[in-house]
Amino acid sequence: MALLEIENLTVEFETASGWFKAVDGISLSIEPGEVLAIVGESGSGKSVAMLAVMGLLPWTAKITADRMLFQGRDIQAIPAAERRKLIGKDVAMIFQEPVASLNPCFTVGFQIEEVLRLHLNLGRAEARKRAIDLFRQVGLPDPAERLSHFPHQLSGGQCQRVMIAMAIACSPKLLIADEPTTALDVTIQKQILDLLMSLQAETGMGLIMITHDMGVVAETADRVIVQYKGRKMEEADVLSLFEAPKNPYTRALLSALPENATGKRLTTVSDFMMADAGGAE
């Protein structure tokens, strides 16, 4: 049974000129232990689709789907209280900007212990011990001391590790990582990616990696979905996608990589763009 199965997901937002489709009929599935990359430019609807799954979009958003199942359960139909128990425990998400995602008014220790007490019903002492273990697991130095720190006292890479610790705190079956290496320097990026892949291998959880970085896709993914303007352009296993991309937009993304540059000027996606947004599978 698939961990997550989505059919024909559409997300619309109301604007001054009418309804705007941020996600337009996306379908996807992920199996236990699989790494699925969702790749595309900024604004292609990658994050919005996953926020719809998490139930984190504004109430004004119009969300429709033929199916949205987690382990066979319709997460659109279950009561709100039950969905809150599911999200954060069995399905967790690492957000794009760790510093902005952490509450600046509380210590990082308080924030991770709150997750543990809410979802696992741990006592204060147990939650603290588990938080220290988690901080150690994600490679934070002096984990017991870090509990008393506020987000602004940590570096960007350390905040990202805190976010990862919070996301894996309840041993989720599915982890969604939204641009987990954005705004981090190259060395820290590699450390974070290595950490995520190590955790995924150890626990066997499904991992959805949202990114615009084709290098990250090549390093991490088993299967890839390419999105453009809210639509799925192509879906393939990672080797097939890089060796024989079928969609013009996918070829455009790959041609724009610096290592694929053939002349003095770096090729841009727009150089290869289709005459219209057609060609979705």
Automatic annotation (TrEMBL):
It comes from Peteryoungia desertarenae. This is ABC transporter ATP-binding protein. Keywords: ATP-binding, Cell membrane, Membrane, Nucleotide-binding, Plasmid, Transport. PANTHER family: DIPEPTIDE TRANSPORT ATP-BINDING PROTEIN DPPD, OLIGOPEPTIDE TRANSPORT ATP-BINDING PROTEIN APPD. SMART domains: AAA. InterPro entries: AAA+_ATPase, ABC_Ni/Peptide_Import, ABC_transporter-like_ATP-bd, ABC_transporter-like_CS, Oligopep_ABC_C, P-loop_NTPase. Its main location: membrane. SUPFAM superfamilies: P-loop containing nucleoside triphosphate hydrolases. GO terms for molecular function: ATP binding. It is found in: Cell inner membrane. Residues 4-254 form the ABC transporter domain. It comes from the Bacteria. Belongs to the ABC transporter superfamily. The lineage of its organism: Bacteria, Pseudomonadati, Pseudomonadota, Alphaproteobacteria, Hyphomicrobiales. It is a peripheral membrane protein.
